Amino acid sequence: xxxxxxxxLPILFVFAATTAVKAKIAPNTSVQQLQIQKSVFVSGxxxxxxxxxxxxxxxxHQNILFVDLCGEGSVxxxxxxxxxxxxxxxxxxxxxxxxxxxYLLRAYTGNYNGKPExxxxxxxxxxxxxxxxxxxxxxxxxxxxxIDQSVIVPVNEGGSLKIYADQAKFxxxxxxxxxxxxxxxxxxxxxxxxxxxxxxxxxxxxxxxLNDAESKVVYASGADEKIYNSxxxxxxxxxxxxxxxxxxxxxxxxxxxxIPQIIYSKTDSKGEFHxxxxxCYGLKDAIIQTISxxxxxxxxxxxxxxxPPVQIxxxxxxxxxxSEFVKLAVQRAVLQKVYQPESKETEHKESFKYPFYxxxxxxxxxxxxxxxxxxxxxxxxILPLSSIRKEKDGYSMRIFDPDKSGFYDxxxxxxxxxxxxxxxxxxxxxxxxxxxxxxxxxxxxxxDLYLEGILSIITYNNKFxxxxxxxxxxxxxxxxxxxxxxxxxxxFVADQSVADFRDVLYWKPELEPFTxxxxxxxxxxxxxxxxxxxxxxxxxxxxxxxxVFKFTVE
Amino acid sequence: xxxxxxSLLFVLFSVTISAFAVGGDEIPKEDVQLMGKIYRFPTGLExxxxxxxxxxxxxxxxxxxxVATDIKGRFDILNNDLIFYNESLKxxxxxxxxxxxxxxLYPGTPDSLFFFKYQGEDVGYRLKNNDFVHALxxxxxxxxxxxxxxxxxxxxxxxxxxxxxxxxxFVQIGDNTYSFKPRYKYVYQIFPKKRKEIRKLISENKIRxxxxxxxxxxxxxxxxxxxIMGAASRSK
Lengths: 554, 236
Hints:
A: Immunoglobulin-like, elongated, B: 2 domains, about 35% strand
């Protein structure tokens, strides 16, 4: 037995040690690598990005990446991305109206304890209509420093990746062929490949070292923000008069839709709730309400996002603004805006679609009957299982259960999927506005929700904009997961007559897996000048592996 | 000395493992919602209308990809339904079939029973599309049983209707579903031209008795044999 132990224990130890060593990064530390497709952007363009994460500990739960483009004290635009193949990829559109200046692109995810792990990059944006008020104001401030990102060209790093071509000069609209070699790399987040234009006279920035620049961005010291690793809408419910937290209150989240869905959560002792939105995509017009209507309650939502920086102490120097490279970039962006098709969404997660109360047994289409002017008439004339009753203190509704030969006095009433409780307010709906009415005349449950009969009204416009908002409710836009898109510029345009002024010839966040070497073909545009082809990855040590090949299009 | 080396190795090993487990979990967890219709307990019946008389720990795999675990469930053999006890509402509901993909009774134990929704053509009056069936073997060949019950009306005044549980076996290969009984003769009927090869498999693998377990073994062997698989008859 002792002899066996002598062999087994060292084996176990070696196994445990090698498992730990594999990541080669100290436990509880992480390295992120944020990549973008070029250095200078024009308003209206898209920032294509890839973010990779390597940790010294298990990080499989870190599935969500929050990405935003910040100005001073404001988040200009943001996206929420889902992890795929150990990295995140996506795009952010820079608003057309964004003034010339230096902005901050941030990517962050929550760690195991909900603490944010942030990486960021400064972004140079040139307003294509010449609006440079922000930059001009910053130039006057002595605490602000000039930074010229256009001259910063990536350099080779590490020795595992290699990129080369058989020539360093290509004709416009010709195909450039590159060979990419990987010596010993095991890159869990894949290898990215980008080809983009750089100034003809490039070199290292004389103004400031970019690696230090992001650390000079100033944040306000505030409360610790919590970043969850699931898409969560959090908030608090308090009584309106005394502002006391309300415990064990059910909070409903619903979005106007023709197929009603409900997500709900219960408040804890602090009155706080957390609603999981993992199934949602896009920007949602959400209505959040409490189920209790017997007293006035107040709902406040937590941000659950990082606050923007208060100061980005940089400006674009005059020489950069007036440089040929920047002027051409603006012209190109305008032309590309006209000629280049929009990037297309590549993935659309189909969600399971049934109303949360199941398939309704009774459906009435008012359009098939004569016109009725209000909902009271509709219920009286064409709804077989429900009736509205006028009472001393208002209206009430009943649903008849034909199986049980009984009535349900407290049915759920939904308008475009939003629960409403004031029956009188339904009277604004008439035959011309209602597309369909579904009745579910039986008791059902949806998790903890007890559904004693359901009447679901679906309007033609599906926006829940006719009926007044329920008591104890708020309406807000909620950003949920973004659909992923693919950079359209990678596609070959064989037609020589099509205007092609791309400055980013190729952007692929993850090349198809290959063992030792692979080839990539890139179509040059009409845009002449200097370019770089860059392959980049992050290894298990958290070190950047990068190879750069410079060439010209003449 | 040897003793201290062994204890040192133990310490080092446990430290390495625990490094992966540190960190408090403060992230709120999501509850998975089950949707159900109110269940009306059958009355005037003698016998058990469920697969098991007790509530069973159940995991329910929903069509939206989520999994509801630690549910108190029972399989209703009269109506081919999964019924569950809603702890917070303190009521029993019938799981809505449209929302359920499959479920496991006693998950994670040797006695666990996996049920899935049969997708295919109706087989007589005994098997319909979307019926919950108990999987015995799943692969290229699906071997499953449908648990149901006959109710025999009481003949005497004051007597109760009697429940007689029954099991009906089926084998599904591709789009074809065959009514089946746990006897080898029914395997030969599915593969009429491969009787000899199947017999050889039975004798070589010492599975002479046509028990459920031996049939599972036989189907797994048949699956690996392309020539037998290709010879499945089309008649049901």
